[in-house]
Design brief:
The complex is a heterodimer of chains A (208) and B (395). Chain A is of the alpha/beta class. Helices cover 16% and strands 21% of the residues of chain A. Chain A has three helices and nine strands, in the order H-E-E-H-E-E-E-E-H-E-E-E. In chain A, strand 1 and strand 2 form a beta hairpin. Chain B is built from 16 helices and eight strands. The chains are: A alpha/beta (208), B alpha+beta (395).
Chain lengths: 208, 395
């Protein structure tokens, strides 16, 4: 088959014929991406793979991003304690109020036939957000989805074996979320929190 | 009776392979259900080396994360550095005004060291694979050759395993005095030693017969399950990022991309374990070719680090203080295949999110499909032939 790399607008024009809900967006550094709804995403994935003009046969990467603090001003760094001064107890962090949908599954596709790329994003709510699993389309997606399920807490409907993959099975919380609370104990073992030093005594540091 | 014709009858036994098994190259656990010697199902259990490097990256400034990329894959730390630095430079270059212009010599140094590291990584891969199959001597030959590469790296950047050498804006140091002669001498030694190595193990008929046709992966499966690099090419897919999406100065060097072709003879199949082994042996020699071309074409060293031709590093700190908002996905060809960095920036000094896509992690996804039906001893061949590096899986 001849190689016909398409640009983002042409790809979007092909997709929108069958999936009118898909929109073409651009990130702030002009990276084009398609925004797809979670409903019917499996059909869209099949279309992207099977349509001979697109032929996205490989899923390069599937990454999950928590957008909860993406548009917030960055937190001010905590100044280091002065020598000799009593340690200041850390202020409790204010709860993050994310704008839903706040979790993004980013599908990075590549076509070995046409040698073009595509970024597709599915945005879901952080509470009980579910995306259809695409492991029947790209076999590798099964593991990527397990990783996102584990570290970001996105469900994947139709996955054959959706379990935690990186953290132990009895772990609580999803570590890559921006409002993740660091555990202080795990199975009876005391844990130091991030940002803490050994000499700071039993776990009185400020978790970022 | 062939293994393919074997049907499950009788009781199944659950066999725990790992996490501390010599052939799993680290702490990887495979839960096998076996009927006699034949595997019925395989469930990989990952995460024993999960250090949450992606989360750590969210609390560090861009240049501070470079040493962590060494630890993602310590067998080819140079290539990991290269991938991350290219991703950040691509992010900076995606809007006008904050581009980083890498000096020409630094670009050559980057691919020179990336290829030297590819040689040393492949030497470990083929040596360890031969050792998994019961041949101990080739491993010593491979490790012995790798020592020469490590000596060169140590003299230039001070470390033998985790280099932190390729930085955002160039490389950390110029070549040490006399490095060119040492590298050329290594190239000669490597080519000579590889002839001996191939005579010792690659052409060994016992080794060939042991691996012929074992765990063959079809091209369609290899693409679908995200196999990358030598594993993908062994299945007959002619795709190499260095040639097809050239980054750095790879467009200025000549090299061949080997593709699997049932090298084991009559019983061999395209994409079997032997093909994956042979491909790495060929790639070592192609990398030697690239190294020689780098040394020929590299401009002479200038006295100033940020000289646009002969320098080795420009200061990118000003751009990194305020990187553009947005995201990039940058992928490079590592010894274990495509390594991709998906970097999301919210405009602050720290990356908002770094996702690392590694070849070993995606290679694990094919295990559940590939391993059932194999003998237990062939599972060892599968792990070895895919060149799994466990910290790269778990990150």
């Amino acid at each position: 088959m001849s190689r016909q790399p398409l640009d983002a607008a042409q790809i979007h024009a092909l997709v929108v014929e069958r999936f009118p809900a898909v929109t073409l967006e651009r990130s702030e550094n002009a990276q084009p991406w398609l925004k797809a709804p979670a409903d019917g995403f499996l059909d869209l994935a099949r279309f992207l793979k099977d349509d001979p003009r697109l032929a996205y046969d490989s899923l390069m990467c599937l990454s999950g991003v928590d957008l909860a603090t993406f548009n917030l001003p960055p937190a001010k760094p905590v100044p280091p304690p002065k020598p000799g001064a009593a340690p200041v107890p850390p202020k409790p962090a204010e709860p993050i109020k994310p704008v839903e949908p706040s979790l993004a599954c980013v599908y990075l596709l590549h076509s070995l036939v046409h040698r073009h790329r595509l970024m597709v994003k599915v945005l879901v709510d952080r509470n009980a957000g579910v995306v259809p699993s695409v492991e029947s389309v790209w076999g590798v997606a099964g593991y990527f989805e397990r990783e996102i399920f584990d570290l970001l807490g996105v469900g994947f409907a139709g996955h054959h074996d959706l379990r935690r993959i990186m953290t132990p099975e009895d772990w609580t919380g999803h570590p890559l979320r921006k409002d993740y609370v660091y555990p202080t104990r795990y199975n009876g073992v005391e844990l130091r929190r991030a940002g803490q030093r050994f000499e700071d005594g039993p776990y009185a540091g400020n978790a970022p | 009776m062939t293994v393919e014709a074997y049907t499950v009858d009788g009781d199944l036994m659950t066999l725990n392979m790992g996490p501390h098994h010599p052939s799993t190259h680290g702490v990887l656990r495979l839960v096998l259900e076996v009927d006699g010697e034949v595997v019925v199902s395989c469930r990989p259990d990952l995460g024993y080396l999960h250090r949450s490097i992606e989360k750590i990256g969210e609390f560090l400034e861009y240049p501070q994360f470079v040493p962590y990329t060494d630890r993602v894959d310590y067998v080819c730390a140079m290539n990991s550095n290269h991938a991350y630095c290219l991703a950040v430079e691509q992010l900076l270059g995606s809007v006008a005004g904050s581009e980083v212009k890498i000096p020409e010599r630094a670009e050559w140094l980057r691919i020179l060291f990336a290829e030297l590291n590819r040689i040393s990584s492949h030497l470990v891969a083929v040596g360890a694979f031969a050792m998994d199959m019961g041949a101990f001597t080739p491993f010593l030959h491979g490790i012995g050759l790798r020592e020469l590469v490590n000596d060169i790296f140590e003299k230039t950047c001070g470390a033998r395993l985790t280099y932190n050498y390729i930085t955002i804006g160039g490389v950390a140091a110029d070549l040490h005095a006399g490095a060119e002669a040492e590298i050329l001498a290594f190239c000669d030694t490597c080519e000579r030693e590889m002839v001996r190595f191939n005579r010792l193990i690659t052409a060994n008929s016992i080794f060939k017969g042991r691996l012929a046709g074992v765990a063959a992966v079809s091209a369609a499966d290899a693409v679908s399950y995200g196999l990358v690099g030598p594993n993908l090419r062994a299945s007959g897919v002619d795709f190499d990022l260095r040639r097809d999406e050239p980054y750095g100065f790879y467009s200025r060097v000549q090299f061949e991309v080997p593709v699997g072709g049932a090298f084991a003879g009559a019983r061999g199949r395209v994409g079997d374990s032997y093909d994956r082994f042979v491909l790495r042996c060929i790639e070592i020699l192609e990398s030697v070719r690239i190294v020689r071309q780098c040394l020929e074409q590299m401009p002479k060293s200038a006295a100033k680090a940020d000289d646009p031709v002969g320098g080795w590093q420009v200061d990118a700190n000003k751009q990194l203080r305020k990187p553009p908002r947005g995201e990039v996905y940058c992928r490079v060809e590592n010894p274990r295949g495509e390594t991709g960095y998906h970097v999301v920036s919210d405009g602050s000094r720290k990356p908002y999110r770094i996702k690392i896509r590694t070849g070993s992690f995606t290679a694990m996804s094919i295990f559940e499909k590939l391993v059932p039906g194999l003998m237990i001893s062939d599972v060892v061949a599968v792990i070895g032939s895919f060149d799994i590096v466990v910290p790269e899986i778990d990150r």
